[in-house]
Amino acid sequence: MAKPYKEMNREELLSLKKELEGKFEEAKGKGLKLDMSRGKQSTAQLDMTMSIMNVFDSDSVLKTEDGIDCRNYGLMDGIPEVKKLLGDMMGVPAQNVIVYGNSSLSVMYDAVSHSVTHGVMGSTPWCKLDKVKFLCPVPGYDRHFKITEYFGIEMINIPMTADGPDMDLVEKYVSEDEAVKGIWCVPKYSNPQGISYSDETVRRFANLKPAAKDFRIYWDNAYAVHHLYDDKQDEILEILSECEKAGNPDMVFEFCSTSKVSFAGGGIAGMAASKANLDYIKEGMTVRTIGYDKVNQLRHVRYFKDINGIRAHMKKHAEIIRPKFEAVLQVLDKEIGGLGIGEWNKPVGGYFISFEAMEGCAKAIVAKCKEAGVVMTGAGATFPYGKDPKDSNIRIAPTFPTPEEMAEATDLFVLCVKLVSVNKLLDKNVG
Amino acid sequence: MAKPYKEMNREELLSLKKELEGKFEEAKGKGLKLDMSRGKQSTAQLDMTMSIMNVFDSDSVLKTEDGIDCRNYGLMDGIPEVKKLLGDMMGVPAQNVIVYGNSSLSVMYDAVSHSVTHGVMGSTPWCKLDKVKFLCPVPGYDRHFKITEYFGIEMINIPMTADGPDMDLVEKYVSEDEAVKGIWCVPKYSNPQGISYSDETVRRFANLKPAAKDFRIYWDNAYAVHHLYDDKQDEILEILSECEKAGNPDMVFEFCSTSKVSFAGGGIAGMAASKANLDYIKEGMTVRTIGYDKVNQLRHVRYFKDINGIRAHMKKHAEIIRPKFEAVLQVLDKEIGGLGIGEWNKPVGGYFISFEAMEGCAKAIVAKCKEAGVVMTGAGATFPYGKDPKDSNIRIAPTFPTPEEMAEATDLFVLCVKLVSVNKLLDKNVG
C-alpha cells in the first residue's frame, strides 16, 4: 500500500526524489515526442468517417428535400434537414436552429463581437459601455476565455462543483450586476472536468433574474452526443425549454458542432435560440453573408441521415476513445491513488480528464513533461487570463495519441507529478 | 431608323404610349416569373463543375503536400497549395494570402467589424471614434455598402468613370480627411458596370497619401478570372506590388473567392495583404477560429490543380454566360439604340450589365418589370443607402436565367424602359 507523500519524513522524501530523478532521466533518454495538449480526434477516428466522401459524386442531385439547389446562393440560415439534425443533437426544434459554417468557436466569437458592435436584441452596443463582465466557471475552456479577453470583457471566476457552476455565486452576480452580460458554460461533459450539470443547476440557470436585459447564457453544448459508454451516459435538461418555462425564453444562446463527430474544421456548426433572438441574429447575418456551405451541410445529412445515425457513429468513436481514457485512469489510479498528491475525475463522456495537482505544482509538472517530450495543455490555460490562482489544474486530452503513445505519455505524466510533488514537499519542509 | 424620343411631339408620344401599353398588357398576360436580380450561376454552370464531387472517395488521403491531415485542426490560415492557387488568381505570392471559409463577403465584413472593435494594425478601434467614413465608387455593389452602413460608417459617393473611380476626388478625400478609413473597389469587371481600372487609376491608388494611417483600400477582386472572351480580356495592374513600390505596402486588403468558379457558398475565399497586415489579422484570427474547412480547400486544389486549371474552367463558364450577355446587348442595341432613353456598357467580363435610364426613371422601370413578373435588382441598390441621386441606374444580371428566359426578360425590360420613358417625357411636357 502506497504511503501518502505528506506523511513521509524528509529522509524518505529525499530518497524518493533520487529514485524519481533517475527514472525521469531514463524517460528523457527515450526522446519522446507526444502531444496530450488538445482535444483532437485521432487518425483512427478520422479514418472511420471517410465514407462521408462517397456520399456525392458527379451525378448527385445536390438539392434539399424542398428542392433548393445547395450549390447556389440562398438559404442563409441553413438547409431545413440540417436544422433538424443539429436540433436533435441539442434536443431543440429545428425552427430554433441556425446552421453556420465549420466552427462553433467562430459562431461564439461572432455572437460576442456582434454584441460589442450592435448590442443584443436592441440593447446598447457593449462598446458604448464602460464595463462588461462575463462569468467564467473554472476550470473551463481556454478558447472561451480568449474571446472575452480579446474584447476587453472582465472575467469573473466561478468555481465548479460536481453539479456544475456554483449557482449561489452565479445568481448573486447575475441578479446584482448589470455589467454581467454572459456566462460561458459547457453543460455536458464539461471541458476539462467532464462534469454534466445537474437538473437543479439547469433549472437554476433557467430561473436566473438578470439585472441586464441583454444577459445571455452562452451554452456550448460541444459534447452533446459524445458519450464514452453505452450503459453510463449523462443527460442534461434541455435549456431552451427550461428557460421558456421559467419566463426567460430569450436568455440562452446554445452552440454545437460536428467537429468531433465528422471532421474537425470540415464539419458544420449550429446555434439554437428563441425565435426573437434568431430574428435579430438573422438581421445582422444578411449583412455578413449570403449563406454558409450548404453542399457540406447536405453531405452531412445524407451521410448521417438522422440523430440515430449520429448516435451509431458516436458509438464507434467511443470504441476508439474509451480505451485511452481508461488507460489514463488506470495509470493514475495505480500510480497516484492514495498518495495525496492529486485528484481527478472519471468522466463518462467528452474529451478530457481534469487533474488537480497539489497547490503550486501544475506549471512545474507541465514544464517537466515538456522537458521529456510530452506536451500538455499549458498550466493555467483552463482559467481566465491563463491564471490558475492555485496553480493546480492540468487538462489531459487523451484522444489524439495512439493507445501505445497514450500509455507512454501517462507514465511520464505520473512520474512528473510525483517528482514535482516531492520537490514541493521538500521545499515546504525547508521553509 | 428609330427617332429619339426627345424629338417626338406630344401626339407622337401619346400614340407610342398607347402602343406600348398594349404590348405591356399582352406581356403581363404571359404570367412570366423571371429573375434578373442577382449575380448567380445558372444550373448549367453548376452542373459543369459537378466532377469536383469525384475528387475524393473513402480511400483518398486528405493530406497537404507537406503531409498535414486536412481532416483535423490546424493550419489556421489555409493550406499552402490553396494559398498559391488563390494567390495566382489575384497575381500575388502565396505568402501574402490567407485562405478563409466559403465567402469573401464574410471576410470583408470581418475586416470592417474587426477594425471597429480592434482598429487596424494598432490604430484606435473605430468604435472609439466620433466619425468614420468610407468612399463608395458608384454605382457599386450593394452588399459592400450594406456592411459599412451596418456599422454606422458614413458613405461618400465617388462617381465612376470609364477608367475607374474619379481619382481627383478620391485623392482629395483620402489625403484631407482623417475620418476616411477605406474605399470599396471592384477593380476588374466592376459590379455593376463591368469597368476595369486603368493602369493610371491603379497607380494613383497605390500612390495615395492617406491622412489616416489606418486607411485601407478594400480591393474586392471578385471577377479576377471571369472573362467572357478569349481574345478580349481586361487585365489590371497588381495592386499589392504597386503599393509596395509606392511606399505604401500596408494600404490594401484584397479579396477573392471561387463562388463564381466552383459553387456559390460551396467554394473558398481568400484575402491578400502585406505581411504586416496578415500578422495583425492572424492575431485576431486565433481568437476566432481554429481553422477553416481544409477538406474543401484541398478538394478545390485537387480539382483545379493550378491557375491554368482555373483558366480552362472559366472558359467553360464563359461559353455558357457569353451568349446571354450578347443576347441582352443585342436586344438593347436593337430596341433602344438611338432612342436617347438609355445608355449601357458592353463588358467583356464579370457578371453584370449596367443600364443608365433617363433621370428619374429607374424605380418606375423596375416596378413595371415586377408588375409583369420580371424581378430586377432594386433600383437604388447600386448606391449607398439605396439612394440613387438621379434614380437612373439599373443593374442587369444575365447569368442565372436560361437563354430563352433571358430573351423574354430582356424583351420585357426594354418594353418597360420605353413605356416609362414615354411617360416621363409626357409628364415633363405637361410640367
Summary, kept brief:
The structure is a homodimer of 431-residue chains. The first copy, chain A, has 431 residues and is α/β, with parallel strands linked by helices.
Overall description:
The structure is a homodimer of 431-residue chains. Chain A is of the alpha/beta class and 431 residues long. The first copy, chain A, is 42% helix and 13% strand. In chain A, the strands form three sheets. An eight-stranded mixed β-sheet of chain A has the order 2-9-8-7-6-3-4-5, sandwiched between helices. Chain A has a three-stranded antiparallel β-sheet with strand order 10-11-13, with helices on one face. In chain A, strands 1-12 form a two-stranded parallel ribbon. In chain A, strand 6, helix 7 (199-206) and strand 7 (216-220) form a beta-alpha-beta unit. In chain A, helix 1 runs antiparallel to helix 13 (403-430), helix 7 packs across helix 8 and helix 12 (362-371) packs across helix 13. The mean pLDDT of chain A is 96. At the A-B interface, helix 4, helix 5, helix 9 and helix 10 of A face helix 4, helix 5, helix 9 and helix 10 of B.
